[in-house]
């Protein structure tokens, strides 16, 4: 099995005939506004998983689905049914004003699972925290909730294929319900900027590792760009790695395009 990382929470998981894309979103650096997962990879993707509807996680989902004809798995709040047709929030729409059809969409509630080919995908509880971003001398704050686009459809995934399990927690604050998941690989955010953050920080992520008891951890969604801000959601990944390894758990720090094999 091969895992590739493309910043934020964007990953490709390849094993045998399966190529799973997690969060095919947009790079938000104003000098490189491009797809996180390279377009050269789109056609060969077999499964698309969306942890929520923010642009860095969701922006390219419909385009990847069109190029690959792959099924899309997401949280139920990202979808609705009208006249028997499943619609998802428009990845590049404004707010919740537009919804578009996906050919093969599988919205899941927490605890629900779907088997697509020989891949099992189960929805895991996540909670997206509020976003607070400095813009010039202002600070923009968005609170997830009913009628809000921020964090819509927030969900994590437990993926089972070829005898291995991978848990990806998207953007989430710490949840006690994660206890005992025990995956082979855990992908979790560590770049929460203090109180009222939209994700865990290093301290909370370490608590999550203790709860979940994985064999290997991949930290993500930290030290990333946001428009003209070069480094938002800052975190000390080397500190996190040292503390994880004290727990007897392997930790892999991955940069853009890095590959690991397990």
TrEMBL record:
<protein>
    <recommendedName>
        <fullName>Metallo-beta-lactamase domain-containing protein</fullName>
    </recommendedName>
</protein>
<dbReference type="InterPro" id="IPR036866">
    <property type="entry name" value="RibonucZ/Hydroxyglut_hydro"/>
</dbReference>
<dbReference type="Pfam" id="PF13483">
    <property type="entry name" value="Lactamase_B_3"/>
</dbReference>
<dbReference type="InterPro" id="IPR050114">
    <property type="entry name" value="UPF0173_UPF0282_UlaG_hydrolase"/>
</dbReference>
<feature type="domain" description="Metallo-beta-lactamase">
    <location>
        <begin position="7"/>
        <end position="221"/>
    </location>
</feature>
<dbReference type="InterPro" id="IPR001279">
    <property type="entry name" value="Metallo-B-lactamas"/>
</dbReference>
